[in-house]
Amino acid sequence: MANLLQWAGRAVSSAKEAFDELLHPRGPDGRFIKKWGMGEKAARQVAQILTTGRARTFPSDAAAGQFAFNTHHRTSKPGWNISKFIRDFDGTNEQLRAGKTDAATASYTKMFDDNSAPLAETSSPPDDH
Q1: Which terminal Cβ of the chain has fewer Cβ within 10 Å, N or C?
Q2: pLDDT in tens, 80-97
Q3: Rounded-to-integer distance, Cα 77 and Cα 55, Å
Q4: In contact, 88 and 104? CB cutoff 8 Å
Q5: pTM assigned to the model
Q6: Whole-angstrom Cα distance, residue 48 to residue 54?
Q7: pLDDT tens digits, residue range 43-78?
Q8: Smallest Cα–Cα separation from 90: which of 105, 101, 77?
Q9: Residue 30 is inside which H or E element, if any?
Q10: Phi, psi torsion values for 4, nearest 5 degrees
Q11: Of the candidates 86, 68, 66, 79, which has an alpha carbon nearest to the alpha carbon of residue 114?
């Protein structure tokens, strides 16, 4: 009888270890429900994204942290006011198209001029004649 109890105890403990709750979802009433499945087309698209996509990798944790910091703080460079850009874009654009310049339009265009990067001089392609 002792051997039978030991065997039953091992069988129950191994069954508990093998049972994965995530593989057996339950509904609100506690009963097992069918698992959600993805359509074939969606599964192919996800597989294509995973195989063709390239995850950004970094040489160190510090480089990854710097990238995350820079990505988060893109709009916080000196002289650039993102809320002013969004708020005044339509009105300023209309005024510039009409050829009118007031103090608000001048400060808006100055914000762009101060933050613009100079472009390298480009030479025309040589003639093949």
Answers
A1: C
A2: 677 777 788 888 888 889
A3: 27
A4: yes
A5: 0.31
A6: 11
A7: 888 888 888 877 788 899 998 888 888 776 655 556
A8: 105
A9: none
A10: -65, -40
A11: 79
- Rounded to whole angstroms, the Cα distance separating 75 from 82 reads 6
Domain boundaries, the chain: 77-114
Instruction: Give residues with Cβ within 8 angstroms of 32, minimum separation 6.
Output: 24, 25, 26
Q: Is 92 buried (19+), middle (13-18) or exposed (0-12) by CB count in 10 A?
A: buried
Please give the backbone phi and psi of residue 20, each rounded to the nearest 5 degrees, phi first.
Answer: -110, 115
Is the backbone of residue 49 left (phi > 0), alpha (psi -120 to 50) or beta?
Answer: alpha
State how far the Cα of 63 lies from the Cα of 95, in Å rounded to an integer: 44
**SS3 state of residue 32:** strand
